[in-house]
Amino acid sequence: MNAVTKAKTDEFVDYQTILTTGKTTRETALQWFDSLEPVDLDFMMGRWKGFILITDPKLEDLVKNSVWGNWQGQEFVDADNVHPWLFSDFRGEVFNVEANPNTYDKTLELHKDDFLKLKSSLATTKSQARLLMAKYRGKISATMIYDYLPIYDFFRLVDENTVLGASVEKNSAQPVFCVLRRENSKFEANSRLIT
User: Which of 176, 166, 171, 179 is nearest to 34 (CA)?
Assistant: First the structure.
């Protein structure tokens, strides 16, 4: 399967451009997500590099100015041991961050350059989520459920090394999207993902 998918409106949307630029509208992201096939738990195992898909100016500002611009992806050790928040410090070292209501608020407040504060106060080696199969928007697929936050991340297949994730918070009208690319896979030349 390639990254160009025929949309339900019979118009062609170039999803490769979305992967390269990291930007689209929320409507297009939803349309793309709905067109993709589900993945199973085994497919998600391992470490994935990722980026938040920018779908509106508020989200773009958050990614540019907060530590969320340093979010690196997720790691699935097994179905019961998942690290949803992998961040990098100024040296490029990747570390796990606690995913709970207190740290969530702190990550929104910390400026992008506050790597050391994030690492020294919020880093953990403990699992912060689990993975199971759940239904969302009509399809059952691998889904990450946070241990301490009311958030589910639903995953769909883009290609053999890429998934599109829809992060849905309880009582939130719209999901936030991310693209995850399997670590150690070959990256396309213009990809936003850095090896």
Answer: 166
Sign of CA dihedral 137, 46, 181, 60: positive
Contact status, residue 182 vs residue 50, Cβ threshold 8 Å = no
Q: What is the set of domains in the chain, with CATH numbers?
A: 4-182 (2.40.128.580)
Look up tokens 């207190």; give the residue: 102
For residues 39 and 76, give the distance between their C-alpha atoms in angstroms, rounded to a whole number: 14
Provide φ and ψ at 155, rounded to 5°.
-115, 145
Helix (H) or strand (E) holding 6: strand 4-6
pTM of the predicted protein model: 0.86
Residues 158 and 56: beta-carbon distance below 8 Å: no
Q: Is the pLDDT of residue 68 over 80?
A: yes
